[in-house]
Amino acid sequence: MALQFNGSPQPTLGVELELILVDPKTWQVSNRVPELLAELGESEWVKPELLQCIVEVISSPCRTVAEVKKELVEKCAKVEAAAQRIGLTTCFVATHPTALWSDMLITENPRYLNLVNRMQWPARRAMIMGLHVHVGVKSAEKAIAFLNAMTTFLPHLLALSAASPYFMGEETGLASSRIKVFEAMPTAGLPQRMLNWSEFQRFMKTLIHSGAIQSIQEIWWDVRPHPKFGTLEIRICDGTPDLDDVLALVAMAQCLICYLEDLYDSGEELPIHKFWFIRENKWRATRWGLDADIVHSDDGTTRNMREDLQKLVKVLTPFAIQQKCLDELQHVHKMIDRGGSYERQRAVYRKTHRFEAVVESVVQEYHECMERGQEV
């Protein structure tokens, strides 16, 4: 049976935030998502995740970043209100600095229980939260072409979003420990290079028939086609507590797809780096975040990530104007100057030597940004 790609005529947006549930008295993680969902009642826009401390908030298909903002602010406010009714709070950040995955409960869902049974330790320790951005793509063939080309820019998105320097009470030395935890999953990480949609279909059928995956949902690449929604889903970003940062990442994802489509429609070559470049650059973004020097050519020439992001924003600016997200894209400059969440978290720990203070700071940042979003 053919795998149909339900293409989107416009670069629509769909955004998913994985929120963590926290006890504000102790700043520790809480396994009470089932109670939270009971407070919210039946809803299609919020759902449990693998672990009972994480809940996912899902936007509907939106045309602009402004629409995404409105939905996220409203929906996250509802989740927070429900959390407060049971004495808890929520936050969007890639890892909790001290929580132990061994203390986390698995969600009582047949799919999740089966997943943990098959994958064991890599699945059980996945106490990580990310930002997923869907961008509408017109056709299956374009989806594959853009899948290959988007890998060139994954390190940039990771460096901007990096928000997980701590894991299980340790300073990892990484800007994003989340991405390394997630890479332990057998179908996570950088995507396979595909020639066309036909090859993608054959690959999916092989994985399913061999028992490697149960469905296409278990392909957790850093970027993947989503046939049902007709999108390319960018999954590499850490959860980061600043709403304006989130919207900047959403704007960049949308503008990158528009930029690639413009090149494709003009018959120009897409900017697809060699695989070893991309793998090395992803590692450097993982390790050093915005301070990474990324590889640009076969002779080993490098460019500073901050400088490369400045150049990329300039390239994407005409598309941001077209998609009415110029202010959000321009916020990338502020992110570059201010530094990433991983840097702010480290600054709090250096000052206080308390992980509880780090958690309190990211929770406060998240709520202040959401409150400002409500005021606009």
Please provide a written account of the structure.
- This protein has 376 residues and is an alpha+beta fold.
- The protein has one domain: Creatine Kinase, Chain A, domain 2, CATH 3.30.590.20.
- 48% of the residues lie in helices and 15% in strands.
- The protein has 14 helices and 14 strands.
- The chain has helices at residues 33-40, 65-85, 110-119, 121-124, 140-150, 154-161, 177-182, 197-209, 243-265, 275-288, 305-322, 326-338, 341-352, 355-375, and strands at residues 13-23, 28-29, 46-48, 54-58, 89-91, 130-136, 166-167, 170-171, 188-189, 220-221, 223-226, 231-238, 293-295, 302-304.
- The strands form four sheets. Strands 1, 2, 3, 4, 5, 6, 11 and 12 form an eight-stranded antiparallel sheet that branches. Strands 7-8 form a two-stranded antiparallel ribbon. It has a two-stranded parallel sheet with strand order 9-10.
- The longest helix has 23 residues, at 243-265.
- It starts with 12 loop residues before the first strand and ends with a helix.
- 46% of the residues are buried.
- The mean pLDDT is 95.
At CATH level 3, the topology is Creatine Kinase, Chain A, domain 2
Q: What is the CATH class name?
A: Alpha Beta
Low-confidence stretches: none
Strand content bin:
15-25%
What is the 3D shape? Answer: globular
Largest sheet: 8 strands, antiparallel
Helix fraction, binned, reads 40-55%
**What structural class do you assign from the helix and strand content?**
alpha+beta
Q: Please provide the ordered H/E string of secondary-structure elements.
A: EEHEEHEHHEHHEEHEHEEEHHEEHHHH
Mean pLDDT across the residues is 95
Rg computed from alpha carbons, rounded to a whole number of angstroms:
20 Å
Total number of distinct structural domains: 1
* N/C terminus separation: 48 Å
Number of helices: 14
